[in-house]
Design a protein that fits this description.
alpha+beta, four-stranded mixed sheet, 5 helices, 11% strand, globular
């Protein structure tokens, strides 16, 4: 999903045509959330967040999309490395701060640091696993 149509090239690849549904729109709009809810309806789901990287937007996405993540599955937040974690030191509150606030208010999802097994990641603490 993206607010701007940037998917045309990927949409031409057979793998994407077979396995990916492209949705244009604002990730936190009611219309998009309803469409995602209708599409998921009890199916096993993984959610990957990589849109607006400001804290409040990411926190809104976490709160809205966490319900779609299946037990044992993941909600992955990209670019938690922003704002000095360790990159873009002057970015301001972003994905990492949103993840930390979200985890403090949500006991059914935990950060799974074992997913950071390749030493370098742009998503430190961003692999969130539903445990309940």
């Amino acid at each position: 999903m993206d607010i701007e149509r940037q998917m045309e090239g990927a949409a031409q690849l057979s793998l994407f045509r077979e396995r990916v549904e492209f949705i244009g729109g604002d990730s936190v709009s009611e219309k998009v959330i309803r469409r995602i809810a209708d599409r998921v309806k009890g199916a096993r789901a993984v959610v990957i967040l990589d849109s607006d990287h400001h804290k409040q937007h990411v926190l809104n996405e976490l709160r809205l999309y966490s319900r779609f993540v299946s037990p044992g599955s993941y909600l992955i937040v990209h670019d938690t490395s922003h704002n000095g974690h360790p990159l873009k030191t002057s970015y301001g509150a972003g994905p990492m701060e949103a993840v930390e606030e979200f985890l403090a208010e949500n006991r059914s999802i935990v950060s799974d640091r074992s997913r950071e097994k390749f030493i370098m990641t742009f998503s430190p603490k961003g692999f969130l696993k539903r445990i309940g």
